[in-house]
Design goal:
The protein contains eleven helices and eight strands. It is an alpha/beta fold and 314 residues long. α9 links the parallel β6 and β7. The longest helix is centred in the first third of the chain and has 28 residues. The chain is globular and about 45 Å long. The two termini are 28 Å apart. 49% of the residues are buried.
Length: 314
């Protein structure tokens, strides 16, 4: 399964471990997307509704890639998952306090702390070691409903749905465990997910990673591998992220978007004239070209964020 967490960002190109992590994630994502597609055909009735023409209608060489934390979801999926595991007695109270502090820091700062992410990754690997993959998948479904569903940014979801309505595939790309990322993708109606892959033997986690967490250059390698396997033209694809750590992934595609960007990504995006959208405040996009549906989502997203920040923690 996926490993939980991130590595310290590196200012260099992908390593052999990054390539391995990317390729493993792409392979896992393709398998999971086939299962999601089969489920969608079973659950979705036929409809005669017309599809909008944004993005390019019927362009099967294009797809969209979305970062998860603070792009699609408020906060970090790993920490929400940690809360759910604590509720189910996977670890002790002192570990929950550490998770809570790291999550609070992330929510307030809006950027990833490498030490927090490294610590979360190591803790999560030790927690799930010896557990079955199927068990964590089942728990992930419950945790999504408990902690994640209400934290999805409506504006970003509108962007993803615009690609789906145009007949394009939409993938999450995250350092979160690939199984948990797949649960989130399915619940959002997306194609599938690229996530960190953790080693399992006979369906049981060993506590080791395949390669490294899907972070920074590894994300770009995963997208590159998936695009090659799917026959996509990256120049016609779009990518969305809040973090400067994802500049390698954003730079791969012809249509990069900075969503809820951190300071470094905002500066980089403006320099390269990339499209910007901030759902934390409801501000208008810095460039024309964002789907009209996202305008409504921006207002809803800002409202949801305000409510979430004042809601009493469970």
């Amino acid at each position: 399964m996926a490993a939980f967490g991130w590595l310290t960002p590196r200012r260099r190109s992908a390593t052999a471990r990054s390539v391995l992590a990317g390729e493993a994630s792409a392979e896992a994502a393709r398998k999971s997307s086939q299962e999601l597609e089969e489920l969608a055909h079973e659950a979705t009735p036929e409809t005669a509704a017309e599809e909008p023409e944004f993005p390019v209608l019927g362009d099967d060489k294009a797809a969209a890639f979305f970062d998860l934390d603070n792009t699609v979801m408020q906060g970090a999926a790993l920490f929400h998952f940690g809360r759910g595991l604590y509720k189910r007695k996977f670890f002790e109270t002192r570990d929950l306090y550490r998770f809570a502090w790291q999550q609070a820091w992330f929510r307030l700062a809006g950027v990833e702390d490498p030490e927090h992410m490294q610590d979360a990754r190591d803790s999560a690997l030790s927690i799930v070691k010896g557990h079955r993959v199927s068990e964590l998948m089942s728990i992930g479904e419950e945790i999504y409903d408990e902690y994640m569903a209400e934290r999805i940014w409506p504006g970003t979801r509108a962007l993803a749905e615009a690609h789906l309505d145009a007949g394009q595939k939409v993938w999450l790309v995250t350092a979160a465990p690939v199984e948990i990322a797949t649960v989130i993708a399915r619940r959002l109606g997306l194609t599938g997910a690229l996530g960190t892959v953790a080693e399992s033997v006979d369906g049981v986690y060993t506590g080791k990673l395949v390669g490294e967490p899907l972070h920074g250059p590894a994300k770009a390698e995963a997208v590159r591998a998936l695009a090659a396997a799917e026959g996509l033209d990256l120049g016609r694809c779009a990518a969305y992220s809040d973090s400067h750590n994802d500049i390698p992934m954003l730079s791969l595609v012809g249509h990069p978007y900075a969503i809820n960007p951190d300071t470094k990504l905002r500066k980089h995006a403006r320099t390269l004239d990339w499209r910007l959208r901030d759902y934390r405040t409801g501000r208008k996009a810095a460039k024309v070209g964002i789907p009209a549906a996202a305008g409504v989502g921006a207002v809803a997203g800002g409202t949801a964020a305000a409510i979430a920040l004042h809601r009493r923690r469970r």
